[in-house]
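Quick one: structure for this chain?
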Amino acid sequence: METKKSISYLRAKRKMETLKGFYSHLAVYILVNTGIIIVSANVFNSEKIDFADWGNYVTAFFWGIGLVSHALYVFYILNIENNIFKRWEEKKIKQFLDEDQF
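Got it. Here's what it folds into:
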């Protein structure tokens, strides 16, 4: 029983670390791209401020593709893998416990 608790704890910790990594990625994405867009739009220069230029958003767009793929991994694929591996692990643990009893 204690082994099952420790396995559950390790799974929960791994999931928490994965979520923490995604939220860190999201925070860095927002901060860095906000800075890039502000600088690219000439907010700090004496030139005309231009938020309409598509070139200001290129980095945010392509980095956003990476962020979306990270989100898909964390919230969709990882949950499917956890279910598949969780069932397999529980089946194997039960099998090993049954073998030890005989």
